[in-house]
Amino acid sequence: MMEMSYELISRNRKALMGWATLWVALLHSQMWFSFLPLQWIKITGHGGVEMFLFLSAFGLYYAYQKGEHGWNFFRRRILRILPYFLPVVLFRIWYLKEPLDESIRLLTATSFWITGDRSMWFVSALIILYALTPLYLHFFSGREEKMTAWAFGLSAAASFFFLDRLQTIFTASMPVFFLGFLAGYYSKQKKTVDRRAKSLGALLLAAGIVLQVISYANDVNETLLFGKGMFWYPHLLIVWPLCMLLSVFTEWCRRVHWLWLPDMMNHLGAVSLEFYLLHELMMKFWSNIFSVAPRYSYHGILFNVLVILLTYWISRVWHALTAALIRACTPASSRELPQ
Questions:
Q1: Domain parsing of the chain, residue ranges
Q2: In CA terms, which of 3, 182, 255, 303 is 20 to 30 Å from 70?
Q3: Which residues contact 281 (CB under 8 A, 6 or more apart)?
Q4: Model confidence, pTM
């Protein structure tokens, strides 16, 4: 039997990003499913963003341990975001005919904080979290579990003060980011998942799912979901054990020679940021050109699947061209792009 360790997340991080991307794509799509388990996966797709945050922190811990400190740390984060973010913003401004004041807010990634525009809130959140990361990891070393407990507890408690504000989506997601650093530390230490940790993970995953089911009951309980923040909080319990479970599943796929599935998730995960930035805009663009069939119909589902595939291929080409341009404009000693 395969021994379970936190290194599984490291080995399968790109594939996990792919699963997260697919989950968010389902949420943003315009299709609904009569098969209830699949429909439940769709409407809880915000968990994919929490997975992004968790896996981003996981990767940042590894980068920090490799010596990415100070300006070098920020330079590599900037290169991973801005060259991909700015073209999408410019296209959005042109296509949606945004007014000047909103255009400035979009270009500076402050629209989410000022007007509550959630279309690309993840980038706004990453900028803040990246800015906090070097300071946090400086104090994290040597007191990893204690720092995680404090950071998770304080950020979770602070989020309750923002329940009536649009920015709850950020404050309620912060705790899972801090969990990602601890998972990265465990992985770096090659720590195994013992029976107690497996039981705790299973319990947390089940509790998170139960909370979601209760919150979405009665044809979507708006008071619980948004008034009480239950659209986000259950994912704090779900994300880490879900990443472990998907990592084990990915390893199993390799063992039984289902290599196509891990490979597909790896390819999707490699362009996760580009896909996230583009997909909603692509949905708006193509929906305005074609009259979409009813979303329960096979034609409606086919339309959404085709948009997902097209978004992936555009993201892949865009990633390759932008990466090549960055390499051409970067000194040879600094050409490795951050992940």
A1: 7-334
A2: 182
A3: 88, 91, 92, 95
A4: 0.91
